[in-house]
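Progress note, sequence design subtask.
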């Protein structure tokens, strides 16, 4: 008997990150597509995980996360953003940023509720909204500057709007929302019941002396915020799948109701190791300089190619325009770059729900200098 069912996500295929990494591996190309470092986390951090495993931290961590880790997170937030967050009632450790984003949406969005997205955005937002029956409402940004039109954005807010999703620094655009932008969001949402999902997983990957403007720094905005963070981006271990969500107690309570039946808790030895490792802030304080060097090194390596770089203020992604080189749709172009030139990239149309193709590709520069250099050389032939 053929089972009959209607797909909840009829337009969703396999995520572009899996597709492009798969193709890169298949043909042995340099993989600058999916965002992850090709170098290891600190040896000391790895040793701490090993020690905690040997010491017996191998069973379920507490559902909201190890309290020792949440205390370190609260201390970090206090030192960076000058705000007091209660580790017991406002922080939940998750199995990575993507799981935290899903739980935020699933905890608050009901069928028919509208969720505003600023596209191009990370490809999990829309399907997460659709899985729970929400309706994505898109404010489309355009290359090369991807500026928010505040007037247009504010008109998208209706009594049906449940949530606004922002990402700063933003994947894939490399743009940031500054203090004055966050202040506009704060003002725009006052007097509404709209929640803010503030995806801040690239909080430390911000360049040229800019400061990350966290939603946590705006007290009235924070009252409606769920802010998402990722250890994978901060400590070079995306495969450890650990992150956290910061939200006021009333919101955290609802968030945890979903989180506990989604993964129950995040992995234990990594949490214990992060708690120890966070005592020394030098690793994350050094990140802006570390990745700014990589961005500039990569731009240098690409200087003799025909690709036109867009400005990158944050994240570990650099965008390039190629419309003057080829008319091919960006997905076909990225596949050909991989198979013919040996460098895998992500087509930016994948981050638009209508597939808008502005002939822009995204390359990840969280890679060793020699790999970035080889990628630049290979792309000189294009
Ligand atoms: N956030 C990463 C990126 O944009 C990938 C995340 C993933 O593959 N799940 O490349």
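Output:
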């Amino acid at each position: 008997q053929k089972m009959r069912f209607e797909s909840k996500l009829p337009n969703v295929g396999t995520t572009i990150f899996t597709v492009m990494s798969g193709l890169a591996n298949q043909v042995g190309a340099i993989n600058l597509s999916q965002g992850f470092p090709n170098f290891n986390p600190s040896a000391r951090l790895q040793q701490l995980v090993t020690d905690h495993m040997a010491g017996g931290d191998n069973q379920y961590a507490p559902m909201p996360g190890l309290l020792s880790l949440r205390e370190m997170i609260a201390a970090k937030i206090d030192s960076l953003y000058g705000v007091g967050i209660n580790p017991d009632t406002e922080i939940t450790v998750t199995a990575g940023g993507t799981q935290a984003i899903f739980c935020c949406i699933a905890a608050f969005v009901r069928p028919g509720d509208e969720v505003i997205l600023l596209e191009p955005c990370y490809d999990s937002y829309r399907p997460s909204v659709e899985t729970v029956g929400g309706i994505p409402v898109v404010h489309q940004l355009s290359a090369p500057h991807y500026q928010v039109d505040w007037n247009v954005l504010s008109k998208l807010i209706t009594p049906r709007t449940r949530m606004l999703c922002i990402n700063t620094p933003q994947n894939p655009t490399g743009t940031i929302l500054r203090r004055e932008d966050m202040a506009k969001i704060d003002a725009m949402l006052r007097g509404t019941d709209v929640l803010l999902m503030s995806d801040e997983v690239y909080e430390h990957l911000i360049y040229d002396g800019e400061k990350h403007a966290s939603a946590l720094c705006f007290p009235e905005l924070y009252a409606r915020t769920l802010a998402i963070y990722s250890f994978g981006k901060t400590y070079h271990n995306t495969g450890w799948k650990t992150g956290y969500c910061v939200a006021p107690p009333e919101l955290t309570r609802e968030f945890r109701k979903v989180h506990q039946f989604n993964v129950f808790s995040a992995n234990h030895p990594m949490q214990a190791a992060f708690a120890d490792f966070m005592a020394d802030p030098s690793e994350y304080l050094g990140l802006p300089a570390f990745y700014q060097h990589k961005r500039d090194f990569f731009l240098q390596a690409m200087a003799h190619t025909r690709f036109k770089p867009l400005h990158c203020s944050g994240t570990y992604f650099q965008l390039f325009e190629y419309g003057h080189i080829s008319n091919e749709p960006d997905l076909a172009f990225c596949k050909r770059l991989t198979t013919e030139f040996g460098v895998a990239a992500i087509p930016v149309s994948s981050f638009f729900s209508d597939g808008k193709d502005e002939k822009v590709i995204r390359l990840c520069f969280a890679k060793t200098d020699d790999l970035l250099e080889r990628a630049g050389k290979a792309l000189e032939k294009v």
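Residues 97 and 176 are 18 Å apart (CA to CA). Work on this subtask will continue into the next period as scheduled.
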